[in-house]
């Protein structure tokens, strides 16, 4: 090998290619584009109820203050939803139906889940939440209830399709 080939064949540090992101493996720091808006993933919650697991990602609008939640679960197929927290007073036990913005929502599911939190949700690590899911008659709009201590958080949401998201890895 000549001098030049030794100089120019310096051992390059090969960086691994970023892992392809899907709605089931998004990481803190990734960028998610939805509805022509970029959001940074600032929190992640993994819920476990028995052997069933689902995810919620806290998305902060780039350059703004809006926060939305992306919910992802693999049932028979990938199910995705976009949720926003709303003010709706609810107490336990959760009712069979709820009224919100002139719509009636009916309880579909209720249970308890252990929680793993990351990023802005790290303070939830190891907690348990009592949750309930509600749907309107058309199953186009949903309410999600989660208890955190004595507080019950309510979010309203709707389903989306995987092709509506673009996910850019923020790390390897």
Provide a compact summary of the structure.
The protein is mostly beta strands and 172 residues long.
Structure description:
The structure is a single chain. With 172 residues, this protein is mainly β. Helix content is 3%, strand content 55%. The protein is built from 1 helix and 11 strands; from the N terminus they run H-E-E-E-E-E-E-E-E-E-E-E. It has one helix at residues 3-8, and strands spanning 31-34, 37-49, 52-61, 67-74, 78-86, 97-100, 103-119, 128-136, 142-148, 151-160, 165-168. The protein has an 8-stranded antiparallel beta barrel with strand order 2-3-4-5-10-9-8-7. It is globular, with a radius of gyration of 20 Å. It starts with a helix and ends with a strand.
**Helix amount, in percent?**
under 10%
Question: What is the total domain count?
Answer: 1
Strand content: over 45%
Q: Between the first and last Cα atoms, what is the distance in angstroms?
A: 35 Å
Write down how many β-strands occur, each being a DSSP E stretch of 2 or more residues.
11
* Class from helix and strand fractions: mainly beta
- Main pleated sheet: 8 strands, antiparallel, barrel
Radius of gyration: 20 Å
Arrangement of strands in the largest sheet: 2-3-4-5-10-9-8-7
What is the element string, with H for helices and E for strands?
Answer: HEEEEEEEEEEE
User: Mean pLDDT, as a whole number?
Assistant: 91
| Number of H/I helices | 1
Q: Uncertain segments of ≥5 residues (pLDDT<50)?
A: none
Choose one word for the global shape: globular
């Amino acid at each position: 090998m000549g001098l030049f080939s030794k100089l120019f064949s310096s051992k390059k540090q090969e960086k691994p290619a970023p892992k392809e992101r899907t709605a089931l493996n998004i990481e803190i720091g990734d960028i998610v584009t939805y509805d022509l808006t970029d959001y940074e993933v600032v929190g992640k919650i993994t819920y476990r109820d028995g052997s069933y697991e689902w995810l919620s990602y806290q998305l902060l609008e780039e350059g703004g203050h809006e926060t939305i939640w992306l919910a992802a679960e693999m049932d028979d197929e990938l199910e995705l939803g976009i949720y926003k927290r709303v003010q709706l007073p609810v107490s336990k036990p959760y009712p069979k139906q709820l009224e919100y913005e002139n719509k009636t929502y009916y309880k579909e599911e209720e249970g308890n889940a252990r929680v793993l939190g990351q990023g802005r949700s790290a303070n939830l690590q190891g907690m348990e939440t009592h949750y309930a899911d509600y749907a309107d008659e058309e199953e186009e709009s949903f309410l999600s209830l989660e208890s955190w201590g004595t507080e019950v958080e309510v979010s309203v949401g709707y389903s989306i399709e995987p092709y509506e998201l673009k996910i850019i890895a923020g790390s390897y």
